[in-house]
Design goal:
Deoxyribonuclease I, Chain A; 326 residues; six-stranded mixed β-sheet; seven-stranded mixed β-sheet; 15 strands; 6 helices; globular; alpha+beta; 21% helix
């Protein structure tokens, strides 16, 4: 297992949130941990061009929210492949950041599942090569006291997704809300249609990634409260069912919408975009002494800049009330 560097203040942030006005807080007096997951669609050129204004606007939204005191305490990013996405990291004001594995950080060897057509079109060598790193970042207002990552084995990918070094990223964060830390996990799983590989192959890759996450948690989770956030590509029923069976945590969307007297949904957020019709998700669990309870949720960063969306994903933000038991 490789250990990521942490407390990298030069990489301070990459995240996203609501509108510049920020969310309406359910109760400012409660100890609340605000977590944002955002796939920023930072594909490198020539796949995506002229992204700098979008990154600048994302960073501006986060700065505005910080000034208002409503910024997410923790931001987990996916698809931050483009070097320009560092604009967000460097200018949003987060004190701590960790980056997922780069292009050359690999696990054990294995046979990558590519169709022959994809192999001919996108790889010159018998074994397809990674052209980007994981695109993962964890950014935090609070100290990161431990950090690790696990790149998915090369036989746990399918199609074009094999070009990026997708992974699981872990950070242990000390918050002012409890005496023990809270674990944060970020990941980006194999896509379906955009992978350009047969469905049975992409499903197999997704299941292997789920198995890897389950083993990773068994190995490194030590009983602390935990939040797992990212782009899990679980919109397909079979994928979601397998994920929930092997990663037995609480679905934040399910919990929130099942307890509407305790959990508020931001105006303009569609309920199905918090549940099963989205690939972006958050899962969580507490322990015997610290419980986490979603009290506010939103899909945000939905504005257009000169007619362009900031990303092909929305932000997925959850506010967790932290309760410490005697």
């Amino acid at each position: 297992m490789q250990k990521a560097g942490y407390l990298l203040k030069s990489m301070c942030v990459v995240g996203l949130a609501l509108s510049a006005a920020g969310p309406v807080m359910a109760d400012d007096k409660k100890p609340v941990l605000r977590v944002l997951s955002y796939n920023i669609n930072g594909l490198p050129a020539p796949l995506k061009k002229n992204k700098r204004p979008l990154y600048e606007r994302i960073a501006e939204i986060l700065r505005d929210r910080r000034e208002a005191g409503t910024q997410p305490h923790v931001v987990v990013l996916q698809e931050a492949f483009d070097k320009g996405s560092r604009i967000v990291a460097d200018t949003s004001g987060y004190s701590y950041a960790v980056k997922g594995p780069g292009r050359r950080d690999t696990s054990k060897a294995g046979s990558a599942h590519w169709t022959q057509g994809t192999r001919r079109a996108y790889a010159q060598r018998p074994t397809p090569q990674k052209i980007t790193g994981s695109g993962l970042y964890i950014l935090s207002d609070f100290p990161i006291v431990d950090a690790k990552y696990k790149a998915f084995d090369s036989d746990a990918c399918a199609g074009l997704d094999c070009l990026s070094n997708k992974a699981i990223q872990f950070a242990r964060i000390e918050t002012p809300f409890a005496s023990e830390p809270i674990d944060i996990v970020n990941s980006h799983f194999n896509s379906r249609g955009s992978a350009k590989a047969p469905g049975k192959i992409t499903l197999k890759a997704h299941k292997r990634q789920t198995d890897t996450l389950a083993k990773f948690l068994d190995q490194f989770r030590t009983g602390h409260p935990i939040v797992i956030a990212g782009d899990f590509n679980t919109k397909q029923d079979k994928r979601y069912a397998y994920f929930r069976e092997h990663v037995p945590l609480v679905d934040a969307g399910e919990n929130c919408l099942g307890n509407k007297t305790l959990c508020l949904v931001a105006e303009g957020t569609k309920e199905d975009e918090l549940l099963y019709r989205t690939n972006d998700k958050q899962f969580y669990d507490g322990n015997a002494t610290v419980s986490l309870t979603p009290i506010w949720m939103a899909r945000n960063f939905d504005e257009l800049l000169d007619g362009r969306p900031l990303s092909d994903h929305l932000g997925y933000e959850v506010h967790y009330e932290v309760t410490v038991r005697d």
